[in-house]
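Input structure tokens:
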């Protein structure tokens, strides 16, 4: 442990006794919680993050247990006898009560897929993202290379957890070093497109930082058009996609390292973007994420800044951003090499439906910390002080972070990409559901892992991991092998004679199985949204559900089938809306008139109807004839917005897919 890390850890120990967890609870029950009671446990240090600030210790105990002095105890009561029995059980079995309540996910050994077949193209991948680029319903991967010529490498998924050989596409200027890639449907044709942040150019004699993001429009067959560049601030390190101004068109936001700012590029809905608007951040934004932190319906921007903070820029309904507010996110001294935030992600970690922030900071030098910091959101756009988990196994530490429920307990977990040469890989920190996290579990990829992405690559309903490995020019895929409900799910200890733990009793609707009255507040996740036919002609007289096959016509098939994957059983609503041309009147998009002939064009979204279906966990299909009730939809462009609501009334984030109905 580095010297500063040790001092901080010792200071945390001197701050007072830690009496959290089931052992401490039993001790307080035995001693009536008197002020003179304390309990000290000695155990081997877990191979995971040590809570440094504001966290109780790990509840699992494996080793000797030292019972400290309790003042005022004069006789052995029934409570004392119960406590002794508890401690003997722990010492003999090496098991603490509740050890099965929070479990780690399990993953198969990583499988590598090369991103370079020669000395340059596809080498040194820095970022990996997931999307269905050829419309076959299987998750595909895209990486960007940090070696000129700049390339985006696409690996098409087969749906069984494996991927085909990579195909390269130009990702901007040939002499640029791209650092990030994001996926979105920028021209709303139903096909995923790519946005690539072009970080810098090493061959220029002037400032090496570039000022552009490249957009590659997808053709829907896994291939992409030539890149078109749009201006940003200097040195964009990361790019994300979101609808900041609420017009239904995807927008772009980049973190601009060299100018200490973020750039917002509002999308026109046709694959082009408006000129960038820049907003100041803290010093050296390395990464950024989007979330509605103040729950006003507008997306906000969170950046991970090299000055040791995260900056929150609250979004306005028109796509502009308010001045930033900084929150400490690093335990190290500012601007020490690697003692700075490098990655950020947003999720609801404590189940209060307010977005929270997870940050990873790396620190190899003296004074730097390798840590995962969590800042809980208050729902008003502000963040509580951080709770930091030290992560000190790898040489240089964590660099990027993603969110997913990897152990199937209904709570968001953190997946971290770790640097460290031959020892690099991924770490997963299981969430406890209250904003705290259990010790991490490490999964080696044997290379410097620069970023991590989440997707269901083998379509078993469990989130898998993909990591971009800069050191060995490959993408590592780790398939999730956690048993349904998680290993040991239900919180039941194994029987004394060995074997598997007994199954937990069924939980009422909305309650997490095995956790009694702890209400399930995790929303369903809708993923892998796709269509069998697009475009299509209107089919039968009513919408049909299930695996109904579409009939052939001379040019187009009748009807289509929506495909999607759910993380849990839920009721699904598919809202069908037509996209028609309009003109901007103030902040509204209205029907075009002669008076508005010169007004800015926009896209109107007109709701036509809703389909509802009860869906199960995993892959689902809903056949759609092109009719709402008995009324056939007219030819034109449409979009389907899918949301899922579980029995506890948790609702997923909406997922949208575009389609076209043509004439017979």
């Amino acid at each position: 442990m580095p010297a500063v890390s040790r001092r901080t850890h010792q200071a945390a120990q001197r701050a007072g006794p830690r009496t959290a967890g089931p052992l401490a609870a039993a001790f307080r029950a035995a001693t009536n919680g008197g002020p003179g009671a304390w309990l000290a446990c000695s155990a081997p240090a877990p191979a995971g993050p040590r809570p440094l600030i504001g966290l109780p210790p790990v509840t699992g105990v494996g080793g000797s247990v030292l019972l400290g002095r309790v003042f005022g105890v004069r006789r052995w009561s029934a409570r004392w006898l119960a406590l002794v029995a508890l401690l003997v059980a722990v010492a003999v079995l090496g098991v603490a009560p509740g050890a099965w309540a929070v479990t780690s996910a399990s993953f198969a050994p990583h499988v590598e897929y090369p991103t370079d077949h020669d000395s340059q193209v596809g080498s040194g991948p820095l970022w990996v993202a997931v999307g269905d680029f050829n419309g076959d319903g299987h998750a595909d991967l895209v990486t960007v290379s940090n070696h000129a010529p700049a390339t985006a490498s696409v690996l098409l998924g087969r749906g069984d957890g494996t991927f085909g050989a990579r195909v390269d596409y130009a990702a901007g200027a040939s002499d640029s070093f791209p650092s990030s890639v994001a996926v979105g449907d920028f021209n709303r044709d139903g096909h995923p497109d790519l946005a690539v942040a072009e970080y810098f150019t090493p061959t220029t004699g002037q400032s090496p930082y570039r000022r552009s993001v490249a957009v590659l429009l997808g053709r829907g067959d896994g291939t992409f058009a030539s890149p078109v560049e749009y201006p940003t601030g200097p040195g964009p390190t990361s790019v994300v996609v979101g609808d900041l101004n609420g017009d239904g068109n995807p927008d772009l936001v980049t973190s601009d390292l060299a100018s200490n700012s973020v750039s917002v590029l509002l999308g026109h809905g046709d694959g082009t973007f408006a000129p960038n608007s820049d907003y100041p951040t803290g010093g050296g934004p390395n990464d950024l994420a989007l979330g509605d932190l103040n729950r006003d319906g507008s997306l906000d921007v969170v950046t991970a800044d090299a000055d040791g903070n995260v900056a929150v820029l609250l979004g306005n309904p028109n796509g502009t951003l308010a001045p930033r507010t900084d929150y400490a996110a690093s335990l190290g001294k500012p601007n020490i090499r690697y003692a700075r935030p490098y990655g950020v992600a947003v999720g609801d970690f404590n189940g209060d439906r307010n977005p929270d922030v997870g940050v990873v900071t790396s620190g190899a030098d003296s004074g730097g910390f390798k840590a995962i910091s969590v800042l809980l959101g208050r729902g008003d756009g502000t963040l509580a002080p951080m709770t930091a988990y030290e992560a000190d196994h790898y040489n240089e530490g964590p660099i990027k972070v993603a969110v997913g429920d990897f152990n199937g307990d209904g709570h968001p977990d953190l997946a971290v990409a770790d640097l460290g040469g031959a020892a690099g890989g991924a770490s997963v920190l299981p969430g406890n559901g209250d904003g705290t996290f259990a010790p991490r579990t490490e999964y080696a990829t044997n290379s410097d892992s620069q970023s991590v992405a989440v997707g269901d690559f083998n379509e078993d309903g469990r989130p898998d991991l993909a990591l971009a490995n800069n050191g060995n020019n490959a993408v590592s895929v780790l398939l999730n092998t956690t048993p349904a409900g998680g290993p040991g799910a239900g919180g039941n200890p194994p029987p004394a004679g060995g074997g598997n733990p007994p199954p937990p009793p069924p939980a009422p609707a909305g309650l997490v199985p095995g956790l009694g009255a702890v209400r399930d507040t995790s929303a369903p996740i809708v993923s892998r949204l796709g269509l069998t036919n697009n475009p299509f002609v209107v089919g039968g007289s009513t919408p049909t559900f299930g695996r109904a096959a579409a009939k052939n016509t001379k040019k187009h098939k009748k009807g289509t089938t929506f495909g999607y994957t759910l993380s849990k059983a839920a009721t699904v609503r598919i809202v069908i809306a037509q996209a028609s041309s309009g003109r901007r009147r103030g902040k509204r998009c209205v029907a075009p008139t002669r008076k508005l002939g010169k007004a800015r064009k926009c896209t109107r979204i007109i709701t036509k109807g809703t389909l509802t279906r009860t869906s199960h966990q995993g892959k689902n299909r809903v056949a759609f004839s092109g009719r709402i009730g008995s009324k056939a939809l007219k030819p034109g462009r449409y979009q389907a917005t899918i949301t899922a609501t579980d029995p506890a009334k948790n609702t997923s984030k909406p997922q949208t897919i575009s389609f076209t109905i043509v004439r017979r």
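The two ends are 71 Å apart (CA to CA). The first strand starts at residue 40 and ends at 41.
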